[in-house]
Every structure is written in C-alpha cells, then in structure tokens.
C-alpha cells in the first residue's frame, strides 16, 4: 500500500530547475523556470523583468532626439536599426524627405549591423552547442565590422549615428574603402563557418527536428525575423514594407519550411550572404549630397498616432508613438521582436531534453534587454 | 652505480641493494615506497601543470589566439600562477551540503587517478608495480573516479550538480564497456595482461601494425571511449557549461575545484598512456622489421621520450576533439555507445580471435 | 487591398462600425463588449484574415485606458489598427484575445502589469516584469506616482 503511494508520488513529482537569472546559455538575465521529467523538459515558464528599466515610461518625459538613444539599449546588437526606426517615424510624421545619401548610408550601416549581429549569434550558438572554437572565429570577423563603425560613427556597439532628418555627421573618407575590403574578406571567411559547424555531424544531429514550430503557430505567436522565416513565415519588413534604400536593392527573402533549429540556423547563415549582396550593391553608389536635413531644435510631432516597423536583426521592431502635439510623446510603445520570440519558447522546446532547450534558445537568438525593455 | 638513460633496471637495483644492506627489509620497503610516492607526486604535479599549459596553448592555436603569453616567457608560468591563485582562494562551504561527502569527493577522484599511475610502464625499469593483471588493474582503478563525481553531485545539494553527476554515472558505466572490450581485443592479441610483457611483445612491431584491421578498430574505439570516460569534450556532458553551468563541480571552489581540474587532466594522461602502451608499443622505439640501421637510429632515442611522445600525441588528439566538436546530447551519447560502439566491439573481438587463431597477424 | 477597399469591406462585415483613418492604418474602434467577437471575425473572415498581431499596446489617453491592436494579414497584406478603450479606471476589464492570437498571451500580461487592465479568460493573468507581491500601482498610467524615482520636469 505505502509502496504504491510512493511510486505514485515519484511519477507526479516535477523536478523544478531554475535556469537563470545567471546562466551561461540564457545570454543575459533571463530566468526560465523549467519543470523536468528526468532530463526531459515538461514545461518552461519564463520570468522576465530582471533588467526592466522602464524605457517606455522614460520616453514619456524625453524629447524625440533623446528617445533615439534609449532605443539603443533595447537590442544592443541592432542598435543602429532601432535608432533608425525612431528617426523614420519622426521624419514620416513631419513629412520630411531625407536626402538619398542618408538613406544609402543608413541601409549600409543597418546591413553591417545585421552581419555583426548574426556573426555574434553564430559564435554564441556554437558555444551553446559546446563548440567553443566558433566564438573566436565569429569575433575575428565581427571585429572588422566594429572597426568600420568606430571610424565613421565613433561608437562600436551603440553607434547613435542617426538623428531625425539624417545622420550625426558625414561618413569617414575610408568608409567605402574599408567596406570594399571587408566584402571579399568575409566572402572568403563565411564558408569556414559552414566547415566548422554547419557540416558537423553532431551539430546536425543536435538541431535537426529539434524545437519544430509550424508556420501557423509562428504567425500566431508573432515570431519574426530569421526565427519566423525558418518556418516559412514571409515576414521580412525590408521586403514587404521597404524603408530607406531597401527598395533600390535586389535581395532575396530567405525562407525555409522545416521550422526546426537547423532551419533557423540556416536562415541566418543565408542572410549573411544576402547582406553581403546588399552591401555590394550600395557601397559604390552612395550619392553625393547633404548628410542631414536642417531640423528645428525642438521637434513637435503633430497630434496623432504613428507606427514605424523596421527589420531588426532578430525580427520586426516597431515603434508606436501617440503624440498630443507637444515635444514629449504621450505614449511610446516599443514592439520588440525578442519578447514575442521568447513567448514561443515553451511551444518549441517542451518535450525535448535540456540540451535541446539550450539549442532552441540559441537558435532563437534572444537578447534579454530587448525582452525586458 | 650504473646509470643508463636507456635502461634504469640496474640503477633501481643498485638503490635497492644499498637500502637492503643498511636497513632491515621492512624499513627498506618503507623507504622505497616513500621515494616512489614522492617521485610520483612530483611527476603528477609537473604533468598536471604541463597539460593545463599545453591545453591552453593548443586551444589558443585552434582558436586563432596566442594563448597565455604574459606570465614568464611564452606564458609558461601561467599555470603556476593559477595554481597559487587556486590555493589561496576561499573554500566556500555550502550550508545544506552533506559536509563529509562533499569534502571526500575530490579526494576520491584524485586518488583514483593517482592509483592508476602506479601500474604504467614509463620506460625500461621505470615501472612501479608490474602486476600480472596490469590491464585489469588500471581499468578497475581508473573507473573508481566516477564514485567521486557521483558523490560530488549528490552532496552539493544543487540541482545542476545532481543532473551532471547522473549524466556522468550513466556515461562512465556505458563507456567502461567499450574501453574494456577494446582492451580485451589487445589482450587476445598479446595473450597477456601484464603491461611489461605487452610492451616487450611490441619490440619488433607495434600492436596497431601487427594486429592491423582489428587492432586499428580497437584503437579508434578506445580513443572515442576514453575521451568519454574522462568527461572531456565532445562528451563533457557532466559539466556541460552551457547547460549545467559547471555540472558536478558547480559548488566547489579553491583547491577542491583544483583537485577535480587536475584529476581530469591526469585521467586524460592515464588513458593516453594506456593507448600508447597497448597500441603504440609504450616506451618501445619505432622499429621496422628488416631495416636494422633504421632501428638502431630509433634506439638512440631514450625509452622515456618515446613513451612521453606517444602519450602527448594521443593527448593532442583528445584536445583537438574537444576544441572542434560540439557537445553530444545525453541520449545520443548513450545511443552511440550501445547501438554502435558495443556491437562493433563485440564483432571486433571475434575478428581478432579469428586473426590470432589463423595466424594472420604480423 | 487598398485602405478604401478595406474600409468598405469592414463596413460590410461590421455594419455601423466606427472607422477612421490615421496617416497609415485604417482604424476600427470597438466597444469593450464587442471586442472578442470582432477580433474573432477579423481573423476568421477569409476576405479579411488578419492572422498576425504584430503589436499590441496599452494606452492611457485622455482618462481612458485602452488597448491598440495592430493587425496584418500575412497573405492579403493589409493592415488594421483595432482600438478598444474603457473609462473604468478602478477595475478595467477587457476580453482576452490570446485564444485568437497566441502572442497576446505575453502582451496582455505586460499590459496588465503596466496599465492594470485585467483580461477576462486569460489563462495566466500575472504581472510580467514587475514584482508580483511588492509592486503597488501600474507604472505606465498617467496618474502613477513615484516620488522617489520619477523627477517631475516643468
């Protein structure tokens, strides 16, 4: 009799494991409360808010120029793209036409950011899988991009190069030369990534069929960016709602239909090739002209509601502003891609092993400050 | 006192005789054991320091880095500095840990690796104990370490540690089979379990050449299984950093952590020297039957260097694995052992028996 | 579908609907009691098929607490801004839409956290970011007071 009860209890009992807030593979202060059955993950409950800074509240007391620099601190790996979203929103609201030169330069830096971000993702993904060498291969190439950033914008990680109406200053004379050196260099180095990790049997075994999610689920959960496109969700804002100079370049929207970790991995690798293609088309054709439009020192958006979407490195980034015609906005909502991507983590990784959870988390490429805002 | 770098038997004999003349046999034995113990301790420390340094340099080389280069020329004192740091670090006591077992675990791990060293032939005459079941002894003793790992995981009272320890238990119990069976293959070929006999038999031709196909298969399996046995990447599931933070030694700090760290490298050294002894002829120089002059040239290199060189090559291979491959998942790890290595191994034993029976070996 | 066509279509499906147009998106404003029904129809109707909720934001404008839903149809590629608001500041309750769009699950928890709007039928109505036990008030409301951390600027 007692034995039966004991047996029953053991089967019912869940082994709760706190992954985070300090854990090597959550890439930040994310806490995942995992219920385990043996090594199998039964349920994942994300607990967010460890670096919630109330950026949306702060924005209500800041001018639009100041808001730009707060959006840096969301997804710090696509800082430039987040800045761009706010600038585009302000420019659209005031109906300012920025010079072509600005659009080109913004697009180039966006794509460089995307490359840098995907490289870092590749590093971290390898680390999550236990292949420590990837980290140094990725960082080696990322360094070159950061050098280009440093020379032109002054910042390596957070560039703060955009301002409403254009750019903070003109590009460095070496800018084009450096990029033209970088493109062939990276075209040669990118196949190394495949040799080191993609083709590896263990890596293929660890990711194929792991964390699958269907196209319908991806749309319903709002999973965007490479993670969404790995399931066949055509969600590339660059393609469907072109901004800056994206309507002037030829590139493909990478779509895979498998929806597993390997598909999400392959999307990012293929996107690096596409980014190189975009860079090649733009770098030689930067038109002459002003680098910014003269703006009034105090920007007041007309009363109304504005929304701007851009394709950040991890998915669709959106800024929603309600303005009452004052210099401070009434409400700023920042739609962050990682928040939605995180919400689908349980859907993807439940039923797999702990090691698979790490692989799925790596393939989603979460950046925690972007979740917490 | 005859001292020859090629044959230390006479040197050892002279020490023994000098001791016996001056002391009673019992005390002579005690003194001899103390001397050997001290020599091994020193050797253990030096090899440990060297391997940590080597791993850092090799890892740096593989990862496009320089590796340690600040402390001393080429950073050779880096590991000594680290060792001093670990010695001086605070030992953190876990409130809810099982204190006795928690403190005992690192010692079990390190004692297990220390005991195995005794039976390994480092050179002609450089052999502490020459058991007639040397192969069995090394296997038995080196697998004791898992008890320490299990205890460490259990007594830490940490969920990550416990998962790591359970993984390690499952892993070592499985891969012990493969190691054992691949060694049995060689024992069939040699007909002896005495390590000195096995080395002596390889005077003309190493077993990996004389046993050709089955010996080669056994070597590959041994290499894979021993990498798993020592909990090194790509089989480092027990400490899987990205999953379990540090696995079974999450809660350890200071010198107790250093014990685990050192034991890992020493286990690697032991399995590498077993691979070198059983497959590559131990301290035997490389001989090609028939080429007398070539063989004489090879004989000029002292046995100890042959032995260390072969061991280092195996260790380099294992480091290369670690820094190149992603980690396996626990079910894949067990699948690899039970579905692939074990059947291949069993077949290989039959093949080896056939080869030996038919006299097809060289 | 252009915005004009979308407006016509919406009037067909929801007769007497309150439709306006901001510079970008057609805006449909609904009463709280019709919210779930409207949302379900917006996704279910094959000619509208708004299957992608790309942004969900709480708002506190002119004394009214509300929620804005930004919808897109992934195959027809048109957009809609669905708005709902309630003037009940003491105990605002709206219907959940997380059975229609799963992404609303986390977003509604965030809105509950920041604006104190409770979503009826939500499976897991807890705070998303802030401390569940200790935190008092809803920070993104305009009447939120925090004398220590918020510096009033004039």
How many strands, which pairing sense, and closed or not: the largest β-sheet of chain C?
A: 5 strands, mixed
Counting H and I runs of at least 4 residues, what is the number of helices of chain C?
Answer: 3
Mean of pLDDT of chain C: 83
Give the class of chain B from helix and strand content and strand pairing.
mainly alpha
- The poorly predicted ranges of chain B are none
Distance between the termini of chain B: 39 Å
The beta-strand count of chain C equals 7
Strand content of chain B: under 5%
State the CATH superfamily name of the domain at 3-89 in chain C: NADH:ubiquinone oxidoreductase Nqo5 subunit
Beta-sheet strand percentage of chain C?
Answer: 25-35%
SSE topology string of chain C = HEEHEEEEHE
Q: What top-tier CATH class of the domain at 3-89 in chain C fits best?
A: Alpha Beta
Radius of gyration of chain B: 21 Å
The helix content of chain C, as a percent range, equals 10-25%
Spatial shape of chain B: globular
Order of helices and strands of chain B: HHHHHHHHHHHHHHH
Coarse morphology of chain C: elongated
Characterize the structure shown.
The complex is a heterotrimer of chains A (373), B (362) and C (154). With 373 residues, chain A is of the alpha+beta class. Chain A contains 16 helices and eight strands. Chain A has helices spanning 2-12, 55-59, 64-71, 79-94, 100-129, 134-153, 175-198, 201-207, 215-221, 225-229, 237-240, 261-283, 337-343, 345-349, 354-364, 368-372, and strands at 15-19, 31-37, 40-47, 162-163, 166-167, 304-312, 315-323, 331-335. With 362 residues, chain B is mainly α. Helices cover 70% and strands 0% of the residues of chain B. Chain B has helices spanning 9-22, 25-62, 78-88, 99-117, 134-142, 145-155, 159-190, 195-201, 207-210, 212-229, 241-244, 254-279, 292-299, 303-324, 330-358. In chain B, helix 4 packs antiparallel against helix 5 and helix 7 runs parallel beside helix 15 (330-358). Chain C has a five-stranded mixed beta sheet. In chain C, strands 6-7 form a two-stranded parallel ribbon. In chain C, strand 4 (64-72) and strand 5 (79-86) form a beta hairpin. Chain A binds chain C through residues 48-49, 52, 54, 56-57, 61, 92-93, 216-217, 219-222, 224, 233-235, 240, 304-307, 309, 316, 318, 320, 322, 330-331, 333, 335, 339-340, 342-344, 347, 372, and chain C through 22-25, 51-55, 57-61, 68, 70, 74, 77, 81, 101-103, 105-107, 110, 114, 128-131, 139-140, 150, 153.
């Amino acid at each position: 009799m007692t034995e039966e009860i004991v047996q029953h209890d053991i089967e019912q009992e869940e082994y709760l494991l706190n992954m985070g807030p300090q854990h090597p593979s959550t890439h930040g202060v994310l806490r995942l409360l995992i219920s385990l059955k043996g090594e199998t993950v039964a349920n994942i409950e994300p607990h967010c808010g460890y670096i919630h800074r109330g950026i949306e509240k702060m924005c209500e007391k800041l001018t639009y120029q100041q808001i730009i620099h707060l959006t840096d601190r969301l997804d710090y790996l696509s800082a430039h793209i987040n800045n761009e979203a706010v600038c585009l929103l302000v420019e659209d609201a005031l109906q300012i036409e920025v010079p072509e030169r600005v659009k080109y330069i913004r697009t180039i830096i966006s794509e460089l950011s995307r490359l840098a971000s995907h490289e870092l993702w590749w590093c971290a993904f390898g680390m999550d899988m236990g292949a420590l060498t990837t980290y140094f291969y990725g960082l080696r190439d990322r360094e070159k991009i950061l050098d280009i950033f440093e020379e032109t914008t002054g910042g390596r990680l957070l560039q703060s190069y955009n301002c409403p109406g254009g750019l903070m200053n003109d590009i460095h004379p070496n800018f084009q030369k450096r990029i033209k050196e970088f493109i062939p260099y990276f075209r040669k180095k990118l196949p190394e990534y495949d040799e080191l990790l993609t083709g590896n049997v263990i890596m293929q075994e660890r990711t194929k069929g792991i964390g699958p999610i269907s196209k319908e689920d991806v749309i319903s959960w709002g999973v965007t960016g490479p993670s969404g496109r790995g399931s066949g969700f055509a969600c590339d804002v660059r393609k469907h709602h072109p901004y800056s100079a994206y309507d002037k370049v030829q590139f493909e929207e990478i779509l895979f239909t498998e929806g597993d970790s390997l598909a999400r991995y392959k999307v990012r690798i293929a996107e690096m090739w596409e980014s190189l293609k975009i860079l090649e088309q733009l770098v030689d054709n930067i038109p002459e002209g002003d680098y910014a439009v003269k703006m009034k020192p105090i920007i007041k958006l007309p009363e109304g509601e504005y929304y701007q979407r851009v394709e950040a490195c991890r998915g669709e980034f959106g800024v929603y502003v309600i303005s009452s015609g004052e210099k401070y906005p009434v409400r700023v909502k920042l739609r962050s891609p990682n928040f939605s991507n995180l919400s689908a983590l349980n859907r993807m990784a439940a039923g797999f092993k702990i090691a698979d959870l790490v692989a799925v988390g790596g393939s989603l490429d979460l950046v925690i400050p972007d979740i917490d805002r | 006192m005859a001292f020859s770098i090629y044959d230390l038997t006479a040197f050892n004999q002279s020490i023994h005789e000098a001791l016996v003349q001056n002391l009673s046999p019992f005390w002579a034995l005690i003194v001899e054991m103390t001397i050997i113990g001290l020599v091994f301790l020193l050797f253990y420390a030096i090899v440990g320091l060297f391997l940590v340094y080597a791993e850092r340099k090799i890892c740096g080389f593989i990862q496009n880095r320089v590796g340690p280069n600040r402390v001393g020329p080429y950073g050779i004192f880096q590991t000594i500095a680290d060792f001093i740091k670990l010695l001086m670090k605070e030992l953190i006591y876990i409130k809810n840990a099982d204190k006795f077992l928690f403190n005992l675990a690192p010692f079990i791990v390190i004692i297990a690796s220390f005991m195995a060293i005794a039976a390994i032939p480092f050179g002609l005459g450089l052999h502490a104990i020459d058991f007639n079941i040397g192969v069995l002894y090394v296997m038995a003793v080196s697998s004791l370490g898992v008890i320490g790992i299990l205890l460490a995981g259990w007594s830490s009272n940490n969920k990550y540690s416990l998962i790591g320890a359970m993984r390690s238990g499952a892993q070592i119990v499985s891969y012990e089979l493969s190691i054992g069976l691949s060694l049995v293959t060689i024992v069939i070929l040699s007909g002896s379990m005495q390590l000195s006999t096995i080395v002596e038999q390889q005077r003309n031709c190493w077993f990996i050449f004389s046993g050709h196909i089955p010996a080669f298969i056994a070597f590959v399996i041994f290499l894979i299984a021993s990498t798993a046995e020592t909990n090194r990447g790509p089989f480092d599931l027990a400490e899987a950093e990205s999953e379990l933070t540090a696995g079974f030694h999450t809660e350890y700090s200071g010198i107790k952590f250093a014990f685990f760290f050192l034991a890992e490298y020493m286990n690697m050294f032991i399995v590498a020297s077993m691979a070198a002894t059983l497959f590559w002829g131990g301290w035997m120089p490389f001989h090609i039957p028939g080429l007398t002059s070539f063989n004489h040239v090879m004989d000029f290199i002292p046995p100890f260097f042959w032995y260390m060189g072969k061991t280092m090559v195996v260790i380099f291979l294992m480091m290369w694995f670690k820094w190149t491959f992603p980690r396996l998942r626990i079910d894949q790890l067990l699948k690899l052992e039970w579905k692939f290595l074990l059947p291949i191994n069993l077949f290989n034993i039959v093949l080896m028996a056939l080869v030996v029976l038919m006299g097809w070996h060289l | 579908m252009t915005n004009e066509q979308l407006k016509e279509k919406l009037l067909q499906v929801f007769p007497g609907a309150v439709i306006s147009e901001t510079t970008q998106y057609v805006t449909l404003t609904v009463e709280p009691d019709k919210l779930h029904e409207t949302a379900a129809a917006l996704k279910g109707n094959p000619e509208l098929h708004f299957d992608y909720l790309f942004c969900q934001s709480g708002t506190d404008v002119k004394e009214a607490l509300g929620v804005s839903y930004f919808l897109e149809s992934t195959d027809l590629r048109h957009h809609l801004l669905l708005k709902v608001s309630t003037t009940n500041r003491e105990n605002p309750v709206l219907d959940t839409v997380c059975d229609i769009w799963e992404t609303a699950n986390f977003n509604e928890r965030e809105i509950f956290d920041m604006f104190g709007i409770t979503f009826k039928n939500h499976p897991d109505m807890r705070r998303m970011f802030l401390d569940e036990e200790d935190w008092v008030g809803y920070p993104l409301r305009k009447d939120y007071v925090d004398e220590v951390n918020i510096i009033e600027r004039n």
